[in-house]
Amino acid sequence: MHVFVNAFKSSSKLLVAMSLLLLSGCALNMKVPIKDPASSNAVHQVEAAKPVALFFKDEQAEADKSKLLGGTIPMQLVYENKPFDALPWIAQHTVKEMAARGLPVTLSNTSGAGPNVLIKRLHIENYRSNGFSPFVTFTSLRAEVETPQGNRGITAYIKRGKVPVWSFDEIIDPTYNAPLGLLTKELAAKLNQQLFNSRISDDQVRSLVQKVNQSGSAEEGIAYLDVYQLGFGNNPLAIPDLVKYCTHSNEYVRLAAISSLGILKASDQIDLLKKLFSTKAGLWQDRAMALKALGDIDTPETRAYLQEQLSALQSRTDKEAKWTKEIIALYL
After folding, report:
1. Are 80 and 26 in contact (CB under 8 A)?
2. Is the pTM value of this prediction over 0.85?
3. In sequence order, which residues have a C-beta less than 8 Å from that of residue 298 and are 6 or more positions away?
């Protein structure tokens, strides 16, 4: 009997290992080199403001601190040939992004010099259903910033996917480096809203819109970055064009537009975002960004809506329900 049980356990372990190899394309525990993101060049119109020194404090639960990465395929993030220490990297590049936008911000090494940014959870989840499907990551952050009006919640959530064609190395930049760079920019944009509420000029909005509108098929792969800049720019003049981009044929332009409506707190688009979320014929990622945007708008109506969706999902255990509940948890 013991021989049979041991043989069964060995076979089970072998099947798990083989399944992981098929999913990962032999990428188990591969090193993922993290690159420094380029800063934006969209300078804000900043009125006279007192300089701010931000201190980033790790307030994650102990169980979360050691679980930056999760998901289907175990991987190792490295930075300058050392294990990736995510929080100081995010702090450095968030402040760098704010300074590039003309905001009077520096990074403090001690608490008390200025507002604290309290990191509550930082996580990167990956998923792959089979060896021919996209490798997908969900990069998320939940934080709070101290303000004179009390602590204010700040979140970021980016979904990215890539099908490796020749080598699994092809997934590194699209699914790890690009989302981490966007995370620092979204965090910078939301910190600006709470601390300065500065914005890019109307002319910059028009220039970005023109650039997106004139992008051909060859440029569509990076056009989403300009769409994100419309959201990060904190100028509501961008809202009508973002609404148009919510049905764009390029998925990342579309996702950036939906997300940006939330970043701009476009409360006049709540009905549109609810419609995008409830349209079951579309892709989950569009619904996910619509729910994220509703969370960012943060009104009694949107909070009640997120609570309704959470209640409706409680008994479901499928992957989309799991991912949707994780988004809602960033806000409730």
Report:
1. no
2. yes
3. 153, 265, 331
